[in-house]
Design goal:
Number of helices: 22
Structural class: alpha/beta
Largest sheet: 4 strands, parallel
Oligomer: single chain
Strand order of the largest sheet: 5-4-9-10
Number of strands: 13
Shape: flat
């Protein structure tokens, strides 16, 4: 509908020029943005609220609607009717369908791309787990939302840099070093890898409850690490290597890789210069022994830069990282995907960046998402209340394998299909709702394949592929004899560019997920109500094969934008 909206916007501007000569009228793109979808399809395919022009045209909405209806002309609009202060548009089915199908065929897998990012660079900071801790369900949000946003921006023409800002620095490493020396062994860590590191970390916190002096010991070990102690540094690097090996297994399942794994430690030598700039700008003030930036004027608490002992904090590291990324990548946007609980943190240091005089401060974007709980309980690695992603994906894959082999014992590549559909089920379940919605994660719900699910979407894609595999090559589209079911499907296909634009503008992958369900529903209705390969009318048969090919193209691209694979047989 995005192309049609642009056409209607231009036609409205032309009609205004004729009906209200000399009047100040919004630009065609602004007029197209004002178009609405009527609540009842019987009222039209698009509607223009004429009250939006009352002030500039100095006329009542019904009078504006009547005047525009008399001069409006657009090749894809059959009629324009007035209903009160609205001007309702009814499409010309044949002209509209031919143009939409032509657009899809000519653009192919690029159909729907706005290409608004051509010549621009976007940096995306997402996933970013804390080293030596497991990849659990709490990391799924930042990982799949972040990667979907990267895929969307790539589709829009941006040059994308994906950064995994690993949590590879901080007192937790002092805790792990203490735990390893007290209760661990190289043999056990080599054998069990990250599972053993987690066990040691959890035990440290349990022991520290009884013996608080362990926390002082951990701080001392981290101080030695900061000072470059060779033994602690070797342990730290070892822990990182073990963690990355584990994380990359999960990333491989999701089809994710990063351009940079530079974590917090990478920026330790880059912070002093930024602190120096803050001093030069007279931004730092002493507050109870700590150095802070006062943000009272912006209705925010102070932003801590240096603790009383002179050590840095998250804002210090994030500021240094942002400066490095701008100097290295010259980004047009730098996007951070983290939980909504960090909104204040990002607002604070974004403001500090601005006060430091960096003219690119307005290019920093925080994309928050809701919290995840397990059966109503807060996630906590230290208490072991987590669902590990590797366990979740393994359970989903095994369930799909069992179902698939039972239905089709001769299925080719059952392991590959089980992985694609099982992992896709979890991803789709997470991305189905608005990213700001809090999620109470229930394993059984994530692994349900009934209703509006990932397997349903992937099965619909496979159904389209199966039809095309049995067809005799590509077919030509004709709008002659177009029926309601066919037109309804074409209307949904036409909405894909609009869904992509909405997802980009709102940093909201669920716009794509919901569109996928609409397209699947429309195609499955078309499949059940219209003969395709068995259609006795050769012209309609070819048209329906062409429509099925368009569904495969658009649905395949939509699934890929939310990190999902597209098996052609299930």
């Amino acid at each position: 509908m995005l192309v049609l909206k642009k056409k209607v916007g231009q036609a409205l501007a032309d009609a205004c020029a004729v009906a209200f000569p000399g009047a100040s009228v919004p630009a065609p793109d602004d007029l197209s943005a004002m178009l609405e979808y009527p609540p009842d399809p019987k009222l039209g395919d698009l509607a223009f609220p004429c009250f939006r022009l009352s002030r500039s045209l100095r006329a009542a909405p019904p009078a504006i609607a009547a005047a525009l209806a008399g001069t409006f002309a657009c090749d894809e609009i059959r009629s324009a009717q007035t209903v009160g202060g609205y001007l309702n548009f009814f499409i010309d089915p044949a002209a509209y369908a031919v143009r939409v199908m032509s657009d899809i065929r000519s653009a192919g897998s690029n159909y729907g791309s706005p290409m608004c990012g051509k010549g621009k660079t976007v940096v995306l900071d997402y996933s970013s787990p804390n080293v030596a801790k497991p990849f659990h369900i709490g990391h799924l949000g930042t990982t799949v939302i972040g990667h979907s946003l990267k895929l969307l921006h790539q589709f829009a023409g941006y040059h994308c840099i994906g950064i995994n800002h690993l949590g590879d620095w901080g007192t937790q490493f002092g805790k792990l070093i203490v735990a390893y020396r007290r209760w661990g062994s190289r043999e056990e860590v080599e054998k069990k890898e990250i599972d053993e590191l987690v066990r040691l970390y959890v035990r440290f916190h349990a022991e520290a409850e009884e013996n608080p002096a362990l926390n002082d010991e951990a701080r001392a070990e981290f101080s030695r690490l900061e000072a470059g102690d060779p033994e602690n540094t070797a342990l730290w690097k070892w822990f990182i290597d073990i963690s990355l090996r584990e994380y990359r297994k999960t990333y491989a399942l999701l089809g994710i890789d990063f351009d940079s794994y530079n974590g917090e430690s990478f920026y330790t030598d880059k912070m002093p210069r930024q602190i120096e700039i803050m001093r030069e700008k007279n931004l730092l003030t002493l507050d109870d022994g700590a150095w802070v930036v006062n943000l009272d004027a912006y209705h925010m608490p102070v932003c801590l830069i240096l603790k009383r002992d002179g050590s840095t904090l998250y804002p210090t590291r994030d500021i240094a990282a942002a400066v490095y990324r701008q100097q290295t990548y010259h980004f047009d946007k730098c996007i951070y995907v983290t939980s909504a609980g960090q909104c204040l943190h990002f607002a604070q240091w974004f403001k500090v960046i601005e006060l430091m005089g960096y003219d690119w401060a307005d290019r920093l974007v925080h994309v928050p998402y809701g919290t995840v709980s397990i059966n109503g309980s807060k996630l906590a690695t230290r208490t072991g209340n987590v669902i590990l992603l590797k366990d979740l994906f393994a359970a989903a894959i095994e369930k799909v394998r069992a179902i698939a082999t039972e239905k089709n014992p001769d299925l080719e590549n059952p392991d590959e299909i089980a992985e694609a559909v099982g992992v896709g089920a979890v991803v789709f379940h997470y991305l189905l709702n608005n990213r700001m919605r809090d999620i109470n994660f229930v394993l059984e719900d994530a692994l349900s394949f009934d209703g509006n699910t990932g397997p349903y979407a992937q099965y619909t894609y496979a159904r389209a592929c199966s039809i095309l595999a049995r067809a005799d090559g590509a077919a030509a589209f004709s709008a002659q004899g177009l029926n309601e079911e066919e037109l309804a499907l074409i209307k949904v296909l036409a909405r894909f560019p609009e869904a992509v634009r909405a997802a980009l503008d709102a940093y909201e992958p669920s716009e794509i997920t919901r569109y996928i369900l609409d397209l699947c529903a429309a195609f499955n209705r078309f499949y059940h109500d219209c003969q395709i390969l068995s259609c006795p009318d050769a012209q309609r048969r070819d048209a329906r094969i062409a429509m099925t090919d368009a569904v495969r193209t658009v649905l395949g691209r939509a699934l890929s934008l939310i990190c999902m694979k597209t098996p052609e047989k299930i």
